[in-house]
Amino acid sequence: MKLKIKSLARGLTDRIPVDLALQPDTIAGPFPDIELTGPLSLKGELVSDDDGTYRLEARMTVTVNGTCARCLSQVKLELDVPVVVFFVPDEHPTVRRPGEEADDEQLDDDKVYAFRDHEIDIGQVIRDELLLAVPNRLYCRDDCQGLCPVCGQNMNNGKCRCAEEHQVDESPFSRLKELL
Length: 180
Fold this sequence. Notes:
- The termini are far apart.
- The protein is elongated, with a radius of gyration of 24 Å.
- It is mainly beta.
- The protein folds into two domains: 2-144, no CATH class; 145-180, no CATH class.
- A five-stranded mixed sheet has the order 2-3-4-5-6. A two-stranded antiparallel ribbon has the order 1-7.
- 14% of the residues lie in helices and 35% in strands.
- Residues 104-108 have low confidence and may be disordered.
């Protein structure tokens, strides 16, 4: 997933449109507990800045499926993510290399990517932005009741009788209730 930027580098234009539709199998990455369904769309433009750097301003849309962290039902989540990242030449003095301490002149920002040979690899940007956009835990709804800890029934579908049938041992904190 590389963007050719020769026309930007030679000054023939100051921006190029970006319109990508990527199938889920072309986006390799560690996406735990989610599945990409349908194509990922990235639409925007790559703009040349005066200092030899480039700025990508776009919107990324994709649908992901996952499992609710409380009740284990399937969750479908539509993501619409604004993307603004910067690209600097690999030899640019502001690029911080792995293991280097950042000095005042270097860009210490996760939204800065290096490029070389008039090609920008957009794949890492897509993976990074997708990982940041997906919540750590998916929920089928905000007020999800989860599963009964005794019988495993989905409490969103109705209450079970486990609390009545199995008397829960006294909580170690019940003594505090008496004090209040």
